[in-house]
Every structure is written in C-alpha cells, then in structure tokens.
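help with this record:
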Amino acid sequence: MNQQWVKQAISDIQADFQRSADTHLIRFELPSFPGIFFYLKDESTHPSGSLKHRLARSLFLYGLCNGWIKQNRPVIEASSGSTAVSEAYFARLLGLPFIAVMPECTARRKIEQITFYGGRCHFVGHSGLIYEEATRLAEELDGHYMDQFTYAERATYWRGNNNIAESIFRQMAREPFAEPDYIVMSAGTGGTSATLGRYIRYQGHDTRLVVTDPEHSVFHDYYHQRDPLLTGDQAGRIEGIGRPRVEPSFIADVIHRMIKVPDAASIAALYWLEPILGRRVGGSTGTNMWGVLQLAREMRAQGRRGAIVTLLCDSGERYQDTYYNPAWVREHIGDTAPWVEMLRDL
C-alpha cells in the first residue's frame, strides 16, 4: 500500500471536515401543543446534501485506516441514493473511481448528483439484489465494497468527536428543555440510531430514542421478535430508510421504542411540514415527523411539557419527480388524503 497516499487521503478528508460548519437545529412550536417544543436537526446543509455525509466521511476514514481503500482502486457501494451521493463526493475528493449499485426506481435527481460527483450508477431490478451485485463488482474490479449496512454502526465514533448526538445535546444546552424527552430517527443502515442510542446511554441522559420505520421494512418486526432471518417481500417506497432484511448495523438494544409509519402518512407529513419550514423535505423526514407528532399527542394527553428532536435528513429537491409529483404518488403510494386529514385533526 502507498502509505504516503493514505496519509494524504486522510488529511484531505479532515481538511474537508474543517471547512464544514455544524448543521442547524431548527425550533418551531405548534399552537395545538402548548409547552412542547419541536426541533429539526437540518442535515440537508452538508456539502453533499444529506445526513449521509457524516456516514460517508466515517466510512472512508474507516476503510482507509483499515487498509481497505487503495489508490486508483474503485469504491463500490450498495445504496438507494443519498449514501451513494455522499460517497461519490468523497471519492471525487480523493480521486477514486466510484460505482453505486442501486434499484432502477431510484429518484432521478439522486442519480444526477452521483454522476455530478463523477460516480457511475449500476442498476439492478430489485433492492434485494444490491448486496450481491456490489460484492461481485468489487471482486471483478479489484475494488473495495464499502458495505454501509455492515459497517455504519462501527465506523462512527459514538462517544463524541462531534458526532450527531453530541452536536444535538450541545445545541440544546440553552433551550427551555435542555434534555429532550425524545429523539426520533428513522433507520436505513441503523448507524445513526446506534450512535444516538449509545451516546444517550454513555452520557447518562434520560432522553428516549424512538425509531420510526416505513411499512415494508422489517426493522420494526425484528425489534419485537428478534429474528435475524426476517425478510420482506416488497420493495420500500421511502428512499433511504427501512430495509427488506435485518442489517448488521441495526442495533435494537439501544432503542427505547419503535413506531411503524404507513408510507402514505410519511408523504402526508412532508406536505404538512412544508408551510411550517417554508421549504420541502425528503420522505424520510416525513416518516420522522409522523412519529414526532404521535409522541407529542401522547405528551399533550398526559399534560406533559418538554422537547422532541428529530432529523431533517435531506432536501425535497431530490424528490420533485416522485414524492412531489401527484401522479407518481397516486400510482406508487396511494391516497394520502386520510392521513392529511389526521394531521389537520391534530
């Protein structure tokens, strides 16, 4: 291995980190929930546009320090979009070829962003095929399969080091309720929920970690049944979260509670959130927000005051052809009207 190249690659990633500011924590209140404060950690402001920027940085550093990523060798990832966009960003930074293995149904805007950063998209017919194809390509091309679904939970330094959990609690320090009642997060790899849950325990916080899961994902069932062989027979429709199988990075024991969210409810929630924020967000943020509102309703019924933090995972600009296209939603998601009405009733 070219040790000088590895040293320079790590230095380039660290320099990129130094050029980046922390992400904003946006607070808003709702008149129908007096005494409850809502917060969105806006991860869409990262250079590559999503929460996955943190994961991609960690995975590249992990791969470099383990000796897996080598000069001039391709990096391959199995990803439905945002992770691939962020990894393409870092691959370009290091001058490495990058290939994203993804389902054919991936949002066009994400595909455009991957190619913008110099990456190549390799399509498969079904999301369950991405793992095997990524492994095959890595062997064929003598490259490195990043495997976010295995290494996400171990690549991030969860005790601190400016991880997302430490950032949230630091930004909450001067708020009316410095320790939130809940942090709500949806799981894709499970890496972020693992980081949040471990940090909460490590620091002795009373905050409860609640993970939301879209309807065709197996994580919710696994949380209750603990059967690692669970698989789903339908492809997920909320990009970036939920999985058709139990991923190694999903650590159920650090989670306090899970909420199953219908896909139509996720879409209704992102529509509901748009006029509050004055901009559009992605589907996973809608899933998160649906869970937040269920918890807020419980707190209101119990007469509790407090704070709930969730993540704004990425911008709605990536989903103009899908979640913000009424014809696409009718065909692929169904009728959102009942869920929109439920949000009005809240």
